Amino acid sequence: MSSRANRLFWYLIATGILVGLVYVSDYRAFARVLFGSAPGYIALTVLCGCFTLLMWSVVWHRFFGLLEIRIRFRESLRLLLAGTFLNAMTPLGRFGGEPFVAHFISSRTDSTFPQALSSVSSSDLSNAFPFVTFGTIAILYTVVFGTIGSVVADIVPWVAVLLVASVLAVYLLWFGGLQSAFGYADGFVGGGFGFGRWQPYVESFKEKGRKVLSRMRDVGDNPRQVVPTLIVSHVAVLGHIGALYFSMLAVGADPVPETVLLVVALSTVLTFSPTPGSVGTFEAGFAGLLVLFFPVAGATATSIAILYRIGTYLPGVVFGYVSLVSLNHTGLSGE
């Protein structure tokens, strides 16, 4: 199957899932809820999504500077938007998006691929960590005040696993843990195995891997730069929290703040679902979370999920496409 046919196949799958979700949730009720939504709250939802993109571009710019990719903030914003679009087009959700984005950045700046991949990976790690932080806060609040009950008890182990995994990822990538493991594995494999005609490719992969991990270690060696960047990442997620809050108000649902926090935190797992931009699968999973944690019908939950995505996903695709076309035509200006 050609690359174009493969993309078309996944787009059709994503569209089919989305249409199926609307149909199963009672499409007539869905249409009534969606078209009866308050335009003012929808506008606020979109603004919240744009706020998150702006804050994420600040994170990207800080990591670019930390890894010696010298460009203006305006160019960092354009790259973030273009990268968001490329990530949305990746056939397997967010999997595989980072190398494409890193290649795009290295081809349009003076940076090397390891520099670009390290900055993008560090940015994604920084921007993912707040979802675990806010999820933990929501869990602790609901456990103390008992606002959700047994449902929380069922997901506490999963949140604990995510928290441990996040801390482990930070250690492995920013503080040399993975670099040490890579060196050990390289010595073990190199001492007892040969790859024949593939050996040059293996050596090239190992060399790039060492450079990427070395650059990632540079991030961990600058905690005074990383800590403020992590704070910006946490501020950015407030945009997603606000987007869900206003999406619920738009359809007349009651957004309980701590539960909104929890749903947004849990929804980050859905971004790794196997469709382009997680379209279809994300909305289905998000609607399921809303039904689980809020007293809303399926049609209302589906409407909220789609409004939330209009605010948090659509701006990145639209502005990202414009930025991508602009970068292809005009390139980047230096610092």
Automatic annotation (TrEMBL):
Pfam families in UniProt: LPG_synthase_TM (PF03706)
Chief location: membrane
Membrane spanning stretches: 40-59, 79-97, 128-148, 155-174, 226-247, 259-279, 285-308
Keywords of this entry: Cell membrane, Membrane, Transmembrane, Transmembrane helix
Compartmental location: Cell membrane
InterPro entries found in the cross-reference section: L-PG_synthase/AglD (IPR022791)
Domain of life from the UniProt record: Archaea
Protein topology in the membrane: Multi-pass membrane protein
Entry GO CC: plasma membrane
Family: Belongs to the UPF0104 family.
Protein name: UPF0104 family protein
Organism, scientific name: Natronomonas moolapensis (strain DSM 18674 / CECT 7526 / JCM 14361 / 8.8.11)
